[in-house]
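Friendly challenge for the regulars: who can give me the structure tokens for this chain first? No prize, just bragging rights.
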Amino acid sequence: MHASIYEHCPQLKSLMIYTWTSENCDHKFAKFLGALRPNSLAQLHTIRDVRAGAETFLALNQHSRALDTLKLCVSSESAPYLSLLAECTALKYLSIEDLHGQIDLEATQNDVFLAIIAWLTKCENLQHLQFPNLQSGAAIATSVLLEHNIRLDHLEMDNYTLKDHKTFHQALVHQKSSLKYLSLSGDTDGMFRDDLDALVDSLKQLHQLRDLKLILPEVLSDQRLIDIIDNLSLLEDLFVSGLELNDIVLDSVARLPKLRSVTLSGISKFTVDGLLKFVGSLGPGNLGIRVTIDMADPDTLLPQESIDVIANFLADKTGGTFDYIALRGKMVPIPSIDERQD
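First reply, four minutes later:
Bragging rights claimed.
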């Protein structure tokens, strides 16, 4: 089979594998990669853990000059060998997903952690970086963000503890001239006011952002969201969670001239008048906008007739759609970080 691929598939550049369950997967996958013409593979995507290891990653170095897209799903068995990809420095797109979300390379295998940083900071063409479910992702990304010759335009980070990564949040500013897409999702427990101040201060400097997703439960107040939004005039897609959202936020959202999709996910207490004013303030750049209000407070829930009025007004003015979703189950109000520290 390997000889046939070499002879009959000279243009094979992209490979996607869902899973691989045979014995000696690492050796067989490495042999397959070695059968391809050197520096012919440009894209590799493993959707599930294919039990790649040292042999596979070393074989990928045979394609180091061509490989620009690498999306790997790894396990605790394969992650220790990631640094063997050190020659693959032509990457533009990198995603390393931890299948089980349990790998903390910084804490348990620091030599591998440092070697991965040394590898990635040499990837000067890197534009898209994401570490789904990888606990060490934010720590690794910090060094990448600070690298002078790297200009990211897309960054996704989840499964990290925000209070432990203030430096990561501050490092975001180093990519402010290029970063267009940012998604942050993590554990907000234990954050103090200065931790949140550092995050907000960085976010509001990312003036080139087109797409912002902040899935940060129970920390962002109205005013902090306003501080962020008021500085990001190029936003086209906005998804934010909040501690409690009121009409005051809508004024800032309405001033985003290019916004096409917005989801406000938090215990929201928007009024009919506030939402109608918001729709009325939208401009020609907001045509076709999709507006989603998630987790509306049951105590201030809008009646269906009012929801229909808002939806019709939005459709008439912009051709857009309006979704209004109630909070499922009543939650006990949680004081903001500012209130807890006053």
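The first helix runs from residue 2 to 8. The longest strand covers residues 237-245. Your move, everyone else.
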